């Protein structure tokens, strides 16, 4: 009688994907941008919270509600993303204080608006002082831009945007940019670094 080898089947296990929970002021552009980082072949998963209202208090309330229902793992992160444009320093301070309560929390602010971060994918963003100037400049690169993104084009330029934003954030602000600038690069660095 021949010796029979015993075969055992390996059970496939998916590795844990680091979760990035994002609560954004914008309901179109920001979710489109950040979900481009979702890919079955990466070690991260981006979850953008749907919310009602764009005021900083509302964005924070939705984040707290989500975190109350789902717990973060040690390697997960929760970020709030807002524009400076019309919000007061007091409103932004509320978000900044929340971000200081846990080392997994973060705050990303663009001044004047999130589209400034998008513009940095293509140029240094000098001479931008208003949301209108920002959108006009961005349309030179994203023809017909109207809150719909060309993710592939942006994805190819992420490292350029990070470098430009980091150069502009010198010395690094501890809370949010008072002049034209963005701290979104800090979140994206973290996302790209964990992929």
Give a structural overview.
By secondary structure, this protein is α/β, with parallel strands linked by helices. It has one domain (18-193). It contains eight helices and five strands, in the order βαβαβαβααααβα. It has helices at residues 29-35, 56-69, 89-99, 114-119, 131-139, 151-155, 158-168, 184-193; strands at residues 18-24, 44-49, 77-83, 105-111, 181-182. Strands 2-1-3-4-5 form a five-stranded mixed sheet, with helices on both faces. α1 (29-35) links the parallel β1 (18-24) and β2. α7 (158-168) packs across α8 (184-193). The termini are far apart.
Query: Level of helix content?
Result: 25-40%
List unreliable stretches of 5+ residues.
none
What about the largest sheet?
A: 5 strands, mixed
Give the total of beta strands.
5
Distance linking N and C termini: 52 Å
Order of helices and strands: EHEHEHEHHHHEH
Overall, the morphology is: globular
Strand order of the largest sheet: 2-1-3-4-5
Q: Estimate what percentage of residues fall within beta strands.
A: 5-15%
Radius of gyration: 20 Å
Which structural class is indicated by helix and strand composition?
Answer: alpha/beta
Tally of helical segments: 8
Give the number of domains.
Answer: 1
Q: Average pLDDT, to the nearest integer?
A: 90
């Amino acid at each position: 009688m021949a010796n029979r080898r015993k075969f055992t089947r390996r059970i496939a296990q998916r590795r844990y994907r680091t979760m990035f929970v994002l609560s954004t002021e914008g309901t179109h552009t920001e979710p489109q941008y950040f979900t481009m980082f979702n890919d079955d072949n990466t070690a991260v998963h981006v979850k953008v919270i749907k919310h009602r209202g764009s005021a900083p208090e509302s964005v924070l309330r939705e984040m707290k509600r989500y975190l109350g229902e789902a717990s973060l793992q040690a390697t997960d992160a929760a970020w709030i993303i807002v524009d400076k444009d019309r919000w007061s320093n007091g409103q932004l301070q509320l978000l900044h204080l929340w971000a200081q309560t846990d080392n997994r929390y973060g705050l990303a602010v663009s001044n004047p608006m999130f589209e400034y971060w998008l513009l940095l994918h293509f140029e240094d963003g000098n001479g931008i002082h208003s949301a209108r100037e920002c959108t006009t400049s961005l349309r030179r690169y994203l023809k017909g831009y109207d809150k719909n993104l060309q993710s592939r084009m942006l994805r190819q330029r992420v490292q350029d945007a990070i470098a430009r934003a980091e150069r502009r954030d010198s010395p690094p602000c501890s809370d949010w940019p008072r002049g034209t600038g963005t701290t979104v690069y800090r979140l994206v660095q973290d996302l790209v670094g964990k992929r």
